[in-house]
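@channel anyone free to eyeball this complex?
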Amino acid sequence: MKRLAKWRLISIFAILTLILSGCGEPFLSALKPAGEVADMQYDLMKLSTFIMVGVILVVVIIFVTVFIRFRRKDDTIPKQVEGSHKLEIIWTVIPILLLLILAVPTVAATFKLADVDQMDKKNTKALVINVRSHLYWWDFEYPNQKIVTSQELVVPTDEKVYFNLKSLDVKHSFWIPAVGGKMDTNTDNENKFWLEFDAKRANEAGNLFYGKCAELCGPSHALMDFKVKAMSRDDFDTWVKSMQNVKEAQKANTDLAAEGQEIFNNSCIGCHAVTPSNQMPDTARQAPNLTNFGDRSRVAGILDHNKEELKNWIRDPEKYKPGNMMTNKYPEMSEDQLDALAEYLMGLKVQQ
Amino acid sequence: MSTYAQKKGFGATVWDFLTTVDHKKIAILYLLAGGIFFVVGGLEAVFIRIQLAVPNNDFVSAGAFNEIITMHGTTMIFLAAMPILFGFMNAVMPLQIGARDVAFPFLNALGFWLFFFGGVFLNLSWFLGGAPDAGWTSYASLAIHSKGHGIDFYVLGLQISGLGTLIGGINFLATIINMRAPGMTYMRMPLFTWTTFVASALILFAFPPLTVGLVLMMFDRMFGSNFFVVANGGNTVIWEHLFWIFGHPEVYILVLPAFGIFSEIFSTFSRKRLFGYSSMVFATVLIGFLGFMVWAHHMFTTGLGPVANAIFAVATMAIGVPTGIKIFNWLFTMWGGSVKFTAPMHWAFAFIPSFIMGGVTGVMLAAAAADYQYHDTYFVVAHFHYVIVGGVVFSIFAGTTYWWPKIFGTMLNETLGKITFWLFFIGFHMTFFIQHFLGLWGMPRRVFTYLPGQGFDTANMISSIGALFMSLGVIALLINVVVTSVKNVKVGDDPWGDGRTLEWSISSPPPFYNFKQLPLVRGLDAFWIEKMEGKKGMIPAEPLGDIHMPNASFLPFIMAMGLFIAAFGALYHGEHSWSILVIIIGLLVTFGAMFVRSVKDDHGFHIHKEELMDDNDKGVKA
Amino acid sequence: MHAEEKLTYETWPAEPEKSTLEAKNKFLGFWLFLGGETVLFASLFATYLALKDKVPNPGEAALAKDLFELPLTFVATMLLLTSSLTSVYAMYQMKNFQFKKMMLWLGITVLLGLGFLGLEVYEFNHYVHEYHHTFTSSAFGSAFYTLVGFHGGHVTFGLAWILTLMIRNAKRGLNLYNAPKFYVASLYWHFIDVVWVFIFTVVYLMGMVG
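replying in thread with the prediction:
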């Protein structure tokens, strides 16, 4: 008996360590919620898991008993039982009750998560962001602030942020696992939902959340990542100001960068904007806005943010994101040209 | 009649199978074709797991990966799981209700050939410019956007094979309603027959929406219409609705027959009648009914609004209740029984914990607000593999070992069967359990690779190793089949010794007319009742008389082939000038064969009493 | 009772369409098939309703209220409804073992059906040429022609089927082998008629209202 108890203790510890270590990365995991939405969803997960573990335990007990007690030992014919009304009522009614316990908070949460009244009010103070998904990149427009950025979403913490979601080519799905469940970007209509980023836990996650596309959208579906920078409201306001201050393309501050800017103006600016104002309709924004490219943490959403990777990307985007829309849209670049371009692009910063 | 001939040349055997309308031979065709597609789909699964074993892998390219996942899903659902279950239904259901054949033997053959040609057409895509690559759900915006002919193969192939499935479903329904032996009331039907019945009804109502969806997509891709072209007023959400109105019942089309197979096995090897038979029947019907009320839970993140999401969430949870009833009834069938752990019983026994896992995650997924996190992640991948592998594939293995002696007259090796079980069982849990966590940790599904540094590496490696074990399990089964067939030790009517239902009351394999005299059914588990009263066989319900049998026909093959030809025309429509001609030729072949079928009288033939008495003397041959 | 046996008015059963096992199966199987067809048309109706008046260039393209005219569709509806009635008469005669009369009523049914098809062809032609409302012009056009065209296809198939049966059995008269065939074909014809009633209501009447 004692040995059995010891084993139990050990196995409980083993399970605990597995659970503690098994929650994934704080910047990415739905099991490390970092906001109101993710919290609600995590609570529902826990509730449903507890109920279900209870059900599993009951089944396992009967299952093991059957296995041990009712193996065939001799050739006798067991009593042919038709059934038992009492038992059948029990295992009909109890599951119904359990499901009701789960259904009530589910319905409540579903309605709460769909509550976007704030964003539709006139002169709303709430922050609204228009998300436009394209084949393998994300466009973020702040309509009230009149700025556009891409690939890296910048949000203030501790307040509700509202999203308008739409796709401009095929269907994608907008997902920031640690902050809340996803919403599809349809091609037909605009979907709306909200998220909230918790300051303290964002800080623990390094203030940079990973975002993903969750709907199969073509070869590079797996690589359609984006990042979310969470910052305090004050920092956010400062960021908005400095973005708004970029009225025309930033001047290059070295000779090499100036050379890069010229190449950029000749070959890239047709698709990539370097000013954040949203004069153009969303359909006209054909490629990521690069106003604050130098501030970002990834090249093309997936590669390390340095000049070498940037040059690799421009040299052969197809190698890194198969099926992307950039390949072959610009002339081939020499190594010198690539150096210049990288120098210029990395200098595009609005934050100090 | 050809079945009388004992030794036949290879050509004669092939011709026999090409023209057969005998449900038992069609069953073998279904099992064979479904088995081959199962291996193909399994290989695709192995490629997926190799590619995902380590981050940034380049075993296959991104485009090829999407083709592989699409074909894996499509093949496994439409071309492997369903046909194999159809094989069991064909082989066993008519015997279980004491019938000499199905209601429409000709249509039965037609259904098979349509499925077969549809499946071949779909798989030809690999050699003709690339397979479909928009996922087995083939969501419209991506499918319309997809280049090449992959999606066209999907759309056309599934229309053809779906037509075959629909015909099969109608056939089973009519058979069960009209062809039951005297005394075989509805509430005396074995549970496998019941689940066949309900699954067929689901097919009847679920496949037309899929067909409509496929036709609309075919029109869009090949004939210039605008159903899903948003710029011209189209709407892609229509596809999602049509697909899932089919797609959700499809899960029950697969899993209900699996429940039926396990019900037979539990009861047989516990030597006990099924606990709560009537509530099992009720639960089956209820699951089938609710199956049509829940499709939008696949679309919680599409933006249907909180009212729709809440309603569909609660409806989905409700399905948990009848499913729970079934689980407890199975457990209490074994409770107090005399349980013998044969190879089929291994699968059935292991099915309970495996399927429970799929069931509970199903309830978790039903909670709409939480589903926003699970949706389109590896959590969902884990969930539906627990349901479909833990439920359906386990039942296929179980049914194969259980009914092999009835279909082929020889027993599969029990030891090899148990080895198969352990390899597959361990591999299965190793592959899919960890995937629940991958999803929760933030890994979306259908990704061809993942970057390092996101905490996905170890879990993916474990999952891939599990796939290796599953493959070894399948190989063990194949070896078993070969070894058994070579040895070919003949067995008697009731080789397991514990048979309860009518199929075990006749020889293995049964004569082509099944029952010389239709049996009189006196209760549930008809054969068991007679055995318990010390009788060797069933009491006949009719005097020995002439038996009316249908003629073999090559027309089903031709009809299906016509559509196969026409599909090539449609595929290249607008690209080659000959395409219209090919469509016309193909349709002429099909409609011509239908015309011949219509105007040529076919009254079948009679086996005369005297021949049957001869048979009695010599012992029944097959 | 063998199906090909020659029967007389006296020996002809009350329900010839269900007098053998094969016939019973055919009867039941066909009803089941019609169940599936119902879902098929329901899906097409749902699609049509979702895409009704969905055009890329609203204001220019013709919408439902511009297209449909009551007189034409009313005549078409009457033709098809009457043909359903005449096929009932045909089956009445079949049950009474009146082969000639059955053939006569079936012949009238076919003529009415052809009239309906002719009107439909005229109608489609009219829309294409007068309104540039085509299968490829808009989602509305695609949905309209698919729904109504599917029905038209069913009418065509039904006509071909009934004609084939009539020609094949012209010299043989009625027996228990072909009686169920006639019966099932007439069942199909009724189904087509019922579907049309829904099309008339949902597409044309509701379309004209707006």
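from a first look: Residues 16-53+62-209 of chain C form a domain with the Four Helix Bundle (Hemerythrin (Met), subunit A) fold (CATH 1.20.120.80).
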